[in-house]
Design a protein that fits this description.
By secondary structure, the chain is mainly alpha-helical. It has three domains: about 90 residues, Orthogonal Bundle (Arc Repressor Mutant, subunit A); about 70 residues, Arc Repressor Mutant, subunit A (Orthogonal Bundle), CATH 1.10.10; about 70 residues. About 60% of the residues lie in helices and about 10% in strands. The protein has a three-stranded antiparallel β-sheet. A two-stranded antiparallel sheet has the order 4-5.
Length: about 300
């Protein structure tokens, strides 16, 4: 009985020891868990505040510089990873340039697009439609008579031949040959049919009338030929021809023709008025008496 009593007492003391021991361990663990929890809360606050700071810094940089390269943005943010920069750009709704191989970035809130959907800052061009492929596809699809590579280049201010060829290869555009020149058309059959008919109608017009009424569609070579033709006319013929083309265009024609032919709008207006009033001088004189520069006496050396 005595041995049994001592054995029970030993078991009870051991149990009390184990209870106090585990309570001590639990206390230590609770303290460590509490410390780790506080650490995580502190780190989370830093992480949550960092994006706000970076977004403000990024917005301030664009407000000041308007456009930037990726390296410039990384430097402004303290050289974070590329993916971090693009994540912040995505939060601010950014645009990449279609010129300079998409090297430059800006914000949608900064870009001021024209009616055509284009915006430039210096020599860098941005489009409402996206990159160069998307821009070329949109312009061709919405055009009246399609575009050749040269015509589209005059509008978007960058070379478009390779982009247009890729779009045809991917079946996103079609193309037809007109006078040995590829003209790119919409991939939608009904739109392309209308564009083909419009292009044929344009080709049936005289070259001069086409250039005058559609300066954006005229190539530099065709414009140069028209200017060369006008240079072979005398002053009166050039004035009357400019007035005739201005009459065809109607309102605003004087300034438009003057910009193409490199003439003063008042000269074009005078030619137009002469035609309308049938005020045509059939004599050989080009100018009215007394017109032109005053004659100057040739100075002679004093002997």
């Amino acid at each position: 009985m005595g041995q049994l009593y001592h054995y029970k007492r030993m078991r009870q003391s051991r149990s009390r020891f184990h209870i106090h021991y585990f309570k001590g361990i639990n206390g230590v663990l609770n303290m460590r868990i509490l410390a780790l929890t506080n650490l995580f809360i502190w780190a989370n606050n830093i992480i949550m505040n960092t994006p706000k700071y970076q977004l403000k810094a990024l917005k301030h940089f664009f407000d000041k510089h308007k456009i930037a390269t990726l390296d410039q943005l990384r430097e402004a943010l303290g050289n974070p990873a590329r993916c971090t920069v693009f994540r912040k750009l995505g939060d601010l709704q950014y645009l990449s340039s279609y010129s300079h191989r998409g090297k430059y970035y800006t914000l949608q809130s900064i870009a001021r697009f024209s009616q055509q959907g284009l915006w430039s800052f210096g020599s860098v061009w941005f489009s409402r439609f996206g990159n160069l492929l998307q821009t070329a596809q949109a312009f061709v699809h919405h055009s009246d008579a399609g575009y050749s590579a040269a015509e589209l280049k005059d509008i978007v201010q960058v070379k478009t031949k390779h982009a247009l060829t890729q779009l045809v290869r991917e079946a996103r555009l079609e193309r037809e040959t007109f006078d040995s020149v590829y003209v790119y058309l919409s991939a939608q059959k009904d739109v392309a049919s209308r564009q083909i008919e419009a292009r044929k109608a344009l080709l049936q017009q005289s070259a001069a009338s086409w250039i005058v009424s559609n300066p954006d569609l005229a190539t530099d070579e065709a414009k140069a030929l028209l200017v060369l033709f006008c240079s072979m006319l005398n002053e009166k013929q050039r004035r009357l021809y400019a007035g005739l083309e201005s009459l065809k265009l109607g309102h605003g024609g004087d300034a438009h023709i003057a910009s193409i032919l490199g003439m003063d709008p008042h000269t074009v207006s005078k030619g137009r008025q002469e035609l309308m009033g049938a005020d045509l001088n059939t004599t050989g004189r080009l100018r009215t008496p007394g017109a032109g520069r005053p004659s100057q006496e040739k100075k002679r050396r004093k002997s």
